[in-house]
């Protein structure tokens, strides 16, 4: 039985920036045989739902309204890491393309929909602490 950290929006929680979810039934099914630890780094960092969309610009996270939300994203990532370590998580499944949870591909910081290679704030921290990260697009690669 694996312990898996999962983005709350993938579990059906309405915590995305626009107040919706992106529930993934295949991920929910994992709870039948594994322990799921739900996280929303943005909310855990103190941001509201709904909230202005944000993108990584250089070494900062900036909202579409021009607000620097780097501190909130960092606090949320650190809280998610704490929960992952406390529960001895085997790996994480995080929301693709998110400035927090995106892995390998994130929005480019221009709010134009363009994507660039990169990782979200939480993914960067998880990788630094050797917690493997997958997105909902990589479920066929899970180490189960």
What does this structure look like?
The chain is α/β, with parallel strands linked by helices. The chain has one domain. The chain is built from four helices and eight strands, in the order βαβαββαβββαβ. Strand 3 (54-57) and strand 4 (60-63) form a beta hairpin. The termini are close together. The mean pLDDT is 98.
Question: What's this model, at a glance?
Answer:
By secondary structure, this protein is an alpha/beta fold. The protein has helices at 25-29, 41-44, 70-86, 121-128; strands spanning 3-7, 35-39, 54-57, 60-63, 91-94, 105-107, 115-117, 133-135. The protein has one domain (3-141).
Largest sheet: 4 strands, parallel
**Count of runs of 4 or more consecutive helical residues:** 4
- The rounded Rg comes to 14 Å
Helix content: 10-25%
Beta-strand segment tally: 8
Return residue spans where pLDDT drops below 50 for at least 5 consecutive residues: none
Mean pLDDT: 98
State the shape. Answer: globular
Strand/helix succession: EHEHEEHEEEHE
Structural class comes to alpha/beta
Read across the widest sheet, the strand sequence of neighbours is: 2-1-5-8
Cα end-to-end separation: 8 Å
Return the domain count. Answer: 1
How much strand? 15-25%
List the helices and strands and how they pair.
Blueprint: E1 3-7, H1 25-29, E2 35-39, H2 41-44, E3 54-57, E4 60-63, H3 70-86, E5 91-94, E6 105-107, E7 115-117, H4 121-128, E8 133-135
Parallel strand pairs: 1-2, 1-5, 5-8
Antiparallel strand pairs: 3-4, 6-7
């Amino acid at each position: 039985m694996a312990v898996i950290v999962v983005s709350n929006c993938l579990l059906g929680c309405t915590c995305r920036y626009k107040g919706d979810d992106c529930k993934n039934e295949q991920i929910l099914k994992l709870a039948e045989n594994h322990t799921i630890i739900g996280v929303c780094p943005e909310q855990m960092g103190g941001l509201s739902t709904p909230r202005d969309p944000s993108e990584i610009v250089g070494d900062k996270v900036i909202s579409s309204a021009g607000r620097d939300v780097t501190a909130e994203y960092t606090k949320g990532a650190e809280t998610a890491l704490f929960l992952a370590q406390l529960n001895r998580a085997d790996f994480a499944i995080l929301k693709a393309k998110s400035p927090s949870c995106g892995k390998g591909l994130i929005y480019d910081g221009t709010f134009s929909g363009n994507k660039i290679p990169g990782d979200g704030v939480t993914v960067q921290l998880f990788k630094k602490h050797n917690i493997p990260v997958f997105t909902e697009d990589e479920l066929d690669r899970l180490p189960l």
